[in-house]
Amino acid sequence: MGLSKEFTTKISDQLLTAYAPLTLVCDGGFSNLRRSLCYSKVDVPSYFVGLIMKNCELPHANFGSLILADPSPILFYPISSTEIRCLVDVPSRNVPSISDGEMAHYLKTLVAPKVPPELYTAFISAIEKRNNIRTMPNRIMAAAPHPTPGALLMGDAFNMRHPITGGGMTVALSDVVVVKDLLRPLAQSI
Predict the structure, then answer these.
(1) 3-state class (DSSP) for residue 117
(2) pLDDT given at position 190
(3) DSSP label at 184?
(4) pLDDT of residue 1
(5) What is the C-alpha separation between 93 and 28, in angstroms, rounded?
């Protein structure tokens, strides 16, 4: 068995079909093939609101910090020697608008008081910096495949958990090990 997929190339408008006896579907949380290979009920329990903070130091150098605050958990981690990414988990039912300033107000009034003192000034500066606030949906989806000979879903294409758990890459790498072990007998028979 396997999968076939129709597509057009950028070079011509001709419709082409590609076929593979084994298709590893690992195209992430926005998978194009998931709908045909599993029951893909995706829940969005919350959004990450992201900011880049500059020239500040985490409470514990070279380690991320997770603040279990009310109303939302707050995650800080270094992305360079001078930048820290801040992700605030905001429940889906409460996501304020960025364009009208509601998000900045939410972050300053509800979140900033929970930020560690050594990060507070950089946090407020990051909120006030133009176009520095971004949102991303946090998706959750249980693994519920339609058994399809020749197709194997992996990583976030197969199931998703809330990213604050840090489990997505762990599961994806574990999937790679399982596939490697399943394919090993084929390599020995070639």
Answers:
(1) helix
(2) 59
(3) H
(4) 46
(5) 25
Q: Take residue 66 and report the two structure tokens written for it.
A: 């997770």
Burial level of 28, CB count in 10 A (0-12/13-18/19+)? middle
Residue 75 and residue 87 in contact, taking contact as beta carbons nearer than 8 Å? yes
Encode pLDDT of 99-128 as tens digits. 999 999 999 999 999 999 999 999 999 999
Strand pairing class (151-153; 23-25): parallel
Q: Are 44 and 79 contacting, i.e. CB atoms less than 8 angstroms apart?
A: no
- Name every residue whose Cβ is closer than 8 Å to that of residue 105 and which is 6 or more positions away in sequence: 96
Residue 143 in tokens? 């693994």
Q: Which of 43-47, 72-76, 136-140, 185-189 has the lowest mean pLDDT?
A: 185-189
Q: What is the identity of the amino acid at 89?
A: D
The pTM assigned to this predicted structure is: 0.76
Task: Provide the sign of the torsion angle of the four alpha carbons 32, 33, 36, 41, taken in this order.
Answer: negative
Amino acid at 19: Y
